[in-house]
Specification:
Strand 23 and strand 24 form a beta hairpin. The chain is about 15% helix and about 50% strand. The protein contains two helices and 24 strands. The strands form six sheets. Strands 9, 11, 12, 15, 16, 18, 21 and 22 form an eight-stranded mixed β-sheet that branches. It has a five-stranded antiparallel β-sheet with strand order 8-7-10-14-13, with no helix packed on it. A five-stranded mixed β-sheet has the order 17-24-23-19-20, with no helix packed on it.
């Protein structure tokens, strides 16, 4: 690799045994000096060596431009206007004179690299003239075409950076002015409240240029015509506003569907919010009805527990134990008869 502005000079040196060595020295070298060099002894081309010479030349110019649907390219000064629905291409072009080596180009929006959405185009042009030798230059272009630019790019800084080996990076920047139809974003599509509650619907509306914003209920426009209704608008950015519809206290008529509609020259956007009546649900504990089999088993377990306590209570009367055993057997038989019946 060689840098430009070093001109080529050839001279010879001799070693002790008298053999000559050719040396290439560069001073003020130009881009057209790039190529492949062969070094060999006159009359003996079979014994040769090859030198591949690459010359990196600094970027001569770096410009933003717009390309219309008709293919007309215009150099961008400080701003680029993009409108939704209108096909327009944005391009960054780097030109390197008298060189076939092209720089690396990257594109960013407010420091976010978006080079992947641009299409690279490379070419080397040769200009021939009868008055002198042919002149050539290399061109590297990144091009992006869209009919629906990103709303978030509005007022953002678009920067193109050209990187060439051996030289400092070159940058060019413009500001994007994006015109687009409104975009409405609300917290949620369903709200719940009770009669007498205060209710507030809040949405963000992004739009450039600014247009009209209307709230409706059952297709009827909501006006700030009483002390119970309040409409507010707070500017967050030049093209973004916080829009709120507030009711101090609601009644049965308020349970309905509300629509916020934002419209400008590029289209409209509608968002629906439904207000539901909140209903409290009382959760009663579930009653468990024991089956006949469960009742029989539980009573037998209770009777056995009673007998066991009698045996371990320290009583010395065997007669009492016998009576209890007879009572247990009689009770079990009686229960069985009732269950069968």
């Amino acid at each position: 690799m060689f840098l430009s502005n070093i001109r080529l000079k050839v001279y010879f040196s001799f070693n002790q045994n008298g053999s000559a060595t050719s040396v290439l020295q560069y001073k003020e070298m130009l881009g057209e000096d790039a190529g492949t060099f062969h070094c060999y002894k006159l009359g003996d081309e079979s014994n040769s060596d090859i030198l591949n010479l690459t010359v990196f030349v600094p970027v001569d110019s770096l410009k933003f431009s717009t390309i219309s649907m008709d293919g007309i390219e215009s150099i961008a000064d400080n701003e680029i206007f993009l409108s939704e629905g209108n096909l327009l291409s944005v391009a960054c072009t780097a030109v390197v004179n008298a060189s076939r080596t092209k720089p690396l180009l990257t594109i960013s929006v407010d420091s976010e690299d978006i080079s992947h959405i641009f299409t690279p185009i490379e070419q080397t042009k040769v200009i021939r003239s009868d008055a002198g030798p042919a002149y050539f230059f290399s061109e590297k272009k990144l091009r992006y075409e869209t009919q629906k630019p990103e709303p978030r790019w509005n007022d953002a800084k678009l920067t193109c950076t050209a990187q060439q080996n051996g030289y400092q990076d070159v940058e060019e920047s413009v500001f994007l002015r994006v015109q687009y139809r409104p975009v409405v974003t609300c917290l949620q599509a369903d709200e719940y409240a009770k009669v007498g509650d205060g209710v507030s619907f809040s949405c963000q509306v992004a739009s450039n240029p600014n247009g009209t914003i209307v709230w409706t209920r059952n297709s009827e426009k909501i006006l700030e015509n009483d002390s119970n209704t309040l409409l507010t608008k707070q500017l967050i950015k030049p093209d973004v506003s916080e829009i709120s519809l507030n009711f101090m206290a609601i009644d049965e008529s308020h349970f309905s569907i509300y629509t916020i509609t934002a419209e400008n020259d590029y289209g409209l956007y509608e968002y629906n919010i439904e207000l539901h009546e909140f209903e409290e649900q009382l959760h009663q504990p579930e009653e468990h009805t024991a089956s006949v089999e469960e009742t029989d088993q539980n009573e037998q377990i209770d009777m056995k527990h009673f007998v066991q306590q009698s045996k371990t209570s320290g009583g010395k009367d065997r007669y009492s134990n016998v009576i209890l055993s007879i009572l247990l057997a009689f009770t079990s038989s009686l229960m069985h008869i009732v269950l069968v019946d």
